[in-house]
UniProtKB/TrEMBL annotation:
Protein name: Secreted protein
Signal sequence extent: 1-23
Keyword terms, alphabetized: Signal
Gene3D superfamilies in the record: RlpA-like domain
Family annotation (InterPro entries): RlpA-like_sf (IPR036908)
Region (Disordered): 85-160
Skewed-composition ranges (Low complexity): 116-127
Length: 217
C-alpha cells in the first residue's frame, strides 16, 4: 500500500511538471508570434504604400511614370523577399489602401471656447521623456512611418513634400531621430529608405506607430 501511494504521488508530480513545461512553452510561442505579427504588419504597410503609388502613376501617367513604376516594382519584390524571410504571408498588403491621417475636426462654433495657442506636448513612453522638437514645423500628424525598401544613403520619399525638402522623423517609442531629404515620390506622407529606417527603428519592427514628423528645411 505504501509503495502504491508513493508511485501515485510521483505520477502526479510528473504530470504537474509536464503541464508547467507546456505552459512555459506556450508563453514563448505567443511572444514570438507577437513579434512576428508586428514585423509582418510593417512590411504589409510598406507593400501597400508602394502598390498604391504604382496605381496612382498608372492612373495619371507622365513622362517619368514608367521609370518610377519600374523602380517601385523592384522595391515591392524586395519587400516580398523580406516577408518570406520573416515568415509573413508573401504579398500581404499589396491590395490594401494606405492608412491616412485622421480627419481634421470640425471648426469650433461661436459658442465653443477659443483653442489654446499651442497644442499640448506629445507624450512619450511612460518610462522615457519625449525628445524636444527639432525646431521645425510639425507635419503629417497621426501618420505612421515605414520603409520604402529602397537602398542608398539615408533619404525619404513623400507624396506631400517636393524633392529636396528636409524632414526630421522621430520614433517616440525609442526617442531616436533622423533628418533626411526627400529624394523621390511615394504613396504616403513619409517613407524612409532602408538606411534611414535603420537609424530610428526598434529591433524586429518595420513600422513606427508613434512618430513625430517635422519639416526643417
Amino acid at each position: 500500500m505504501s509503495r502504491r501511494r508513493t508511485l501515485s504521488r510521483g505520477k502526479k508530480a510528473a504530470l504537474l511538471v509536464g503541464a508547467a513545461a507546456l505552459a512555459g512553452g506556450g508563453a514563448v510561442v505567443m511572444t514570438g508570434t507577437s513579434q512576428a505579427s508586428v514585423a509582418c504588419d510593417g512590411l504589409a504597410t510598406a507593400l501597400g504604400n508602394n502598390a498604391r503609388f504604382i496605381a496612382e502613376q498608372r492612373a495619371n501617367p507622365d513622362a517619368q511614370s514608367e521609370a518610377r513604376i519600374a523602380n517601385r516594382e523592384a522595391v515591392i519584390e524586395e519587400i516580398k523577399r523580406k516577408q518570406a524571410a520573416s515568415g509573413c504571408e508573401v504579398g500581404a498588403g499589396g491590395g490594401e489602401a494606405v492608412a491616412q491621417p485622421p480627419a481634421e475636426p470640425d471648426p469650433p462654433s461661436e459658442a465653443d471656447p477659443p483653442a489654446e495657442a499651442d497644442p499640448p506636448a506629445e507624450a512619450g513612453p511612460p518610462d522615457q521623456a519625449a525628445p524636444p522638437p527639432g525646431g521645425g514645423e510639425q507635419v503629417c500628424a497621426g501618420s505612421t512611418v515605414t520603409l520604402s525598401g529602397e537602398g542608398g544613403a539615408p533619404a525619404a520619399s513623400s507624396n506631400e513634400f517636393p524633392i529636396g525638402t528636409q524632414l526630421r522623423v522621430t520614433n517616440l517609442d525609442n526617442n531616436k531621430s533622423v533628418t533626411v531629404a526627400v529624394t523621390s515620390v511615394s504613396g504616403s506622407c513619409v517613407l524612409l529608405n532602408d538606411a534611414a529606417f535603420e537609424e530610428v527603428r526598434e529591433p524586429g519592427k518595420f513600422l513606427i506607430r508613434q512618430a513625430r514628423i517635422e519639416r526643417v528645411g
